[in-house]
Each structure stands twice: as structure tokens, then as C-alpha cells.
Write a structure and sequence with these properties.
By secondary structure, this protein is mainly alpha-helical. It has 14 helices and no strands. Helices cover 78% and strands 0% of the residues. The longest helix has 34 residues.
């Protein structure tokens, strides 16, 4: 069914994201003007910086922003809870713990398999925590307070385990763990982007194909069943897809919080609650948000660089408090 208002919003966000990509690729410690790139030969240092440093980082920010925002939208729909978020419920921490294990206790694998190891480990860690959270949500019958308490407990346990691994690590591993814990795209390279996109892009497509099923799940499991949906199978599929999105993102960028919380709320306000429109809107808005945050992180303290996870937390923390206060007033 056509939705002219949603189409206008999606077109506007697509234009804004493309403009942000063009801007971000030329901003940094060294500003690269289009005129200078046009006049320089392909072998020039300016082109090497643009092709091998700036462009993969910009595209990685786009892909990871899409993954985090869409996973948050799916989780909020799946749990029927506006405060569901990969970071708050401990799913990002589970993925991060698996990556930390892969960093500190590496396996003797061929180089090609080692390239995929962080993504596979993060997927398994996020899937395990996602399944645990979903089981608790069934037992708690959607209780927000219990879900948040479970998320706090999982975050604490995973944080403690990562702390033990940091204590066991050497200097190089410790630095890698520290950067990963704050969230950063500074290690972006073309092979890393290829591995990340191989997980995320098909998962985004498969998630979009289940948007109608996600809409029906909002009616409740019993009503969705009478509408012809295999509820358990759909829930399992959405769990796996969300785990893939979160795991792939965390494996290359570390823990970047609140993108999956903030973006779906804004898109629900702009596009409505129909996931056929909200999911692509969340993907575009998540890409735009993380791209702008990463560009700011690269330029605000030049020549140093701020971890992008700190900026998203500065944005998402007040938003989360506002959501809790609004729900508190709504429950009175």
C-alpha cells in the first residue's frame, strides 16, 4: 500500500545520507577538496587517503548504523517494548564478550578464517543473550522492569568477564579491548568492510521481507496465529537476524550504544508504526546518525580522535531518561 508521506521522508533521508557520505569522505585531519582530488593523479597521496582510509570508514559507518538501528526496531517490535535496545538488554555486551574471548584467546586458524572469527563469535554471543532475554520476556509477560533488570544483570556479568580477560591480556590486546569497549571505527579497512557487509546486508534484506509478519506480531501472539502466521518460527527468525546484525556490528566497531534506541523512536514518530516503512527509515536514519557522529568524532579534537561510542552515549543517555520519565507519567 502506497504511503506518500513515508515515501517523502525516505527520499529526504536518502538524499541527506548521500550528502553526508560526500561530506564525511572529505573531512578529517586533512581536508580533501573535490577540486584537489580531481587535479591529482590516482597514484597521489590524496587519492590513497581518500580511497583506503576515508571511504572504507564512511561506508562502514553507514553499514553499522543501519544494522544497529534496524536491530533496535526489530527488538522493540518483537518484545512489544519501546525501551528494548541491544545495549540496554545486554545483547551488545554478549557479542562483545565473545569478541573479547576471540581477541585474548585466539585460535590457531588460517588467516582467512581469522578474518571471519570476530563476526562469527559476536553472532554466537549475541544470539545466546538474545535467546535468554526472549525467554525471560515470555516468563515476565512483557514486564519492562524485569527486562531491564535482566539486562542490567547480563551487562554486569559480561562486563566482569571482559574485565578478567583484560587482566589476562598483553599490552596489544589490552589496547584493542579498550578501543573496542568505547566503540570506534578507526580500524576500518576494505577487508573488514567486506566481511561486515557480508553479514549485515543480507540480514537487512531478510528482515525487511518479514516486516509484515512483525506488524502482525504487534497484535499479540494469539491474533497473529489466527492471521496465519507461524508465531514461533517468525520469532526465531527475527531473533537470529537481530543477532546477526548486532554481532556483525559489534565485531568490527565495538559497543556503540543507543543508536538502536533513539532511531526507531524518531522513525515511529515520522513514519508511523508500520514496519514496512519504519525498517528502511530506521536503516537510513541510523546510517545518517552514526556517519555524522563518526565525522564529528574525527574532527572535533583534531589531530586526536574521540571514540564514536562516547558521542552516541552523550546523545542517547538523556533520550533514555526522557523515555523513562514519559512512561512513568503515562503509567500514573
Amino acid at each position: 500500500m502506497s504511503n506518500p508521506r513515508a515515501l517523502r521522508w525516505l527520499a529526504l533521508m536518502l538524499i541527506a545520507m548521500l550528502a553526508a557520505v560526500a561530506l564525511a569522505a572529505n573531512l578529517g585531519a586533512m581536508t580533501l577538496s573535490p577540486r584537489a582530488l580531481w587535479l591529482a593523479p590516482l597514484s597521489d597521496t590524496l587519492w590513497q587517503i581518500w580511497l583506503n582510509i576515508r571511504l572504507p570508514r564512511v561506508l562502514l559507518a553507514v553499514v553499522i548504523g543501519m544494522a544497529l538501528a534496524v536491530s533496535g526496531a526489530v527488538m522493540q517490535g518483537l518484545f512489544r517494548n519501546p525501551l528494548a535496545d541491544p545495549g540496554l538488554l545486554g545483547i551488545s555486551s554478549g557479542a562483545g564478550l565473545a569478541v573479547a574471548i576471540a581477541i585474548v584467546l585466539p585460535l590457531a586458524l588460517p588467516p582467512l578464517l581469522l578474518l571471519w572469527l570476530p563476526s562469527v563469535a559476536a553472532f554466537l554471543g549475541s544470539l545466546a543473550v538474545m535467546a535468554l532475554i526472549f525467554s525471560f520476556s515470555q516468563l515476565a509477560q512483557g514486564s519492562l522492569a524485569r527486562l531491564l533488570l535482566v539486562g542490567i544483570a547480563i551487562n554486569a556479568l559480561c562486563g566482569a568477564a571482559v574485565g578478567v580477560l583484560a587482566w589476562l591480556s598483553n599490552d596489544q590486546q589490552l589496547r584493542q579491548l579498550s578501543l573496542w569497549g568505547m566503540g570506534s571505527l578507526s580500524q576500518a579497512q576494505w577487508p573488514m568492510l567486506a566481511v561486515c557487509a557480508a553479514f549485515i546486508l543480507p540480514s537487512l534484506l531478510l528482515t525487511q521481507l518479514r516486516a509484515r509478519h512483525l506488524n502482525l506480531l504487534q497484535l499479540g501472539e494469539e491474533d497473529a496465529h489466527y492471521m496465519g502466521i507461524d508465531v514461533r518460527r517468525t520469532q526465531r527468525q527475527l531473533l537470529v537476524l537481530s543477532a546477526l546484525l548486532v554481532g556483525a556490528a559489534v565485531s568490527v566497531s565495538g559497543i556503540i550504544g543507543f543508536v538502536g534506541l533513539v532511531v526507531p523512536h524518531v522513525m515511529r514518530f515520522c513514519l508511523g508504526s508500520d514496519h514496512r516503512w519504519m525498517l528502511p527509515g530506521s536503516a537510513l536514519a541510523g546510517a545518517l546518525l552514526l556517519l555524522l557522529a563518526d565525522t564529528l568524532a574525527r574532527t572535533v579534537v583534531v589531530p586526536a580522535e574521540m571514540p564514536v561510542g562516547l558521542l552516541t552515549s552523550l546523545l542517547g543517555g538523556p533520550w533514555f531518561l526522557w523515555l523513562i520519565l514519559r512512561q512513568q507519567r503515562g503509567g500514573e
